[in-house]
Amino acid sequence: MSAGNAVSSFHVLTKPTGAICNLDCKYCFFLSNVLCTVHAKNADHPLEVYRFFRDELGTRHIQLIPIVERVNSDGRTRFQEGTEVTDRSVTAEQWGRFLVAIFDEWVKRDVGTVFVQMFDAALASWAGVPPALCIFAETCGDAVALEHTGDLYSCDHFVEPKHLLGNIADTPLATLVGSPKQRAFGAAKRDTLPRYCLECPVRFACHGECPKNRFILTPDGEPGLNYLCAGYKAFFTHVDRPMRIMADLLRRNQYADEVMGILAQQEAALVAAAAKAGRNEPCPCGSGLKAKCCHGSPARQSQ
Ligand code: SF4
Ligand code: SF4
Asked: Tens digits of per-residue pLDDT, 185-222?
């Protein structure tokens, strides 16, 4: 199946219906719940991707997964090792722009009707509750991976020899999950953050993301920074104001979707203020741009 230039080709698994399906799924990865990988090919087309899922597939739950594929010393991509990535991988900047573009569309019209897992997780952080997404949790280690052989690994992103916990035929599952090795694996997510992350204003939402992506140097040369850092920093900084509004609504037992009306009112007020300002005056929104290039532009005024 193809969807114009943005998404040249992909596979769709169609959920069986009626008598064929006896699973009565409430949550799955089929058409009502899309899991979308974001990579070099589609990363520059965020709105085409999002609108296709929303408008053509009718999807209401979307998971976005950045593809970061590390190249090992033997040229293969089997393990989370190496500091180079394949050319299929998304860049940090692409990832940030992808998230920001979809968020801006979602927060204007889709809050409460389309659920983007990454945005829900961010809102949880702004609301002060633990995010349901392990990559944004302070520690991890509770999502182990079990192979058909009975081998248990620390995480499905680390199914490799040095993260083998044991075999459930030899040791009870609970013992392996609670083992010092696995607890250390989970705590390392917090304890190995570079200073750059410890001093980051959006650490409360990011927590350095997944350890599998922490293989670049910080600006001052410390190892362990997340490859996607620039993208996450851009995204979490960008969403701060609407996230604060939604978190505040939730604290007052109101619905987060009221943010759409609040933002529309604020936008209209800024457009009106910009119209009164001189075209070459600074825009009243504080962007630093001239009014004619920001809320005073014909495009904004005609919205
Ligand atoms: S290693 Fe990454 S994917 Fe695995 S549990 Fe930790 S944060 Fe989650
Ligand atoms: S945005 Fe970057 S610096 Fe901040 S916590 Fe995340 S990875 Fe660390």
From this structure: 999 999 999 999 999 999 999 999 999 999 999 999 99
Assess whether the C-beta atom of 211 lies below 6 angstroms from ligand 1: yes
Ligand 2 centroid – CA 207 distance (Å): 7
Q: Is 156 a catalytic residue?
A: yes
Alpha-carbon dihedral sign for residues 231, 236, 239, 243 = positive
Q: Is the CB of 144 under 6 A from ligand 1?
A: no
Question: Pick the catalytic residue: 74, 156, 170, 248?
Answer: 156
Q: pTM of the full predicted structure?
A: 0.88
DSSP secondary structure letters along 80-136: S--SEE-TTSPPHHHHHHHHHHHHHHHHHHTTTTSEEHHHHHHHHHHHTS--SSGGG
The answer to whether 212 and 158 are in contact (CB under 8 A) is yes
Q: Which residue out of 68, 202, 204 has the highest number of ligand 2 atoms within 8 Å of its CB and is therefore the one to mutate? A: 202
Q: How far apart are CA 129 and CA 138, in angstroms?
A: 12
Q: 167 pairs with which residues across the strands? A: 151
